[in-house]
Write a structure and sequence with these properties.
Layout (H helix, E strand, L loop, with lengths): L1 H22 L3 H28 L8 H21 L6 H6 L4 H4 L5 H6 L7 H16 L2 H26 L2 H4 L3 H14 L9 H6 L6 H13 L3 H25 L14
Helix pairs in contact: 2-3, 2-7, 3-7, 3-8, 3-12, 8-10, 8-12, 8-13, 12-13
Amino acid sequence: MIKTFSKEIRLVLLSVKYSIMKEMPNKFTFITNVVFMILNNASFILEWIILFSIRNEIGGYGFKEVMVLWGFAAGTYGFCHLFFGNAIHLSDMIVNGELDAYLVQPKDALLSAISSKCQISAIGDLIYAFVMLIIYGFSIPNLLLYTFAIVCGGIIYASVSVIYNALSFWFGKVDVITETVNNVFINFATYPDSVFKGGVRFLLYTLIPVGLSNYLPVWLMIDFRPELFIILGLSTILFAVFAHGIFNKGLARYSSSNLMNARV
């Protein structure tokens, strides 16, 4: 099982490598996409500098805590879109019958499908995320914990995208649902969790688990507790397994479009 898992990971890394290599001939576009994503993220720092010049804290967060929150928001988004770029487009692939090429390959169909595309600008998100770690306070333990949390958050984000996109097996196009989930992940991930109460807070830790992918890692960085570390790891595994199960169950209803585009 471990050997199979490591093989699948290598295939994902190779897929990302080839996607990047395809973009490299046009170095100007490649670098521009990355740099502009970093600048786009960094522009919001000015807003928080202004806010914290008025107040010492917001929702229990100081300036450094907000920066690490933004780091996790950018990092989880970047990890998901770099390594599993097709997770948010899976609905279109299902509805248009574009999974054929992945089903005939001797590797996991879901992992192969969602890793077949990567968003180059997501590299900028990841770079920005680690710049935020430097602002927060760089150390080797912080780096290891931060990286672990970003990987877990990115996998949770990708898994939730797969779960909602897989509804297309039963209900056809679910664009409104998947876009809403994606927008919630992007928008809510950049605000302190303490500003959300009641039903909204419950939603953000269950159906759209921004709390697990972004808020929990922030509290891990602020005050490391083994139980939070375990919860994050187990949540990541559970969401990944559930997403894989939903996808495989839906495949029984999949209708091929007879598009047998070869993939290497």
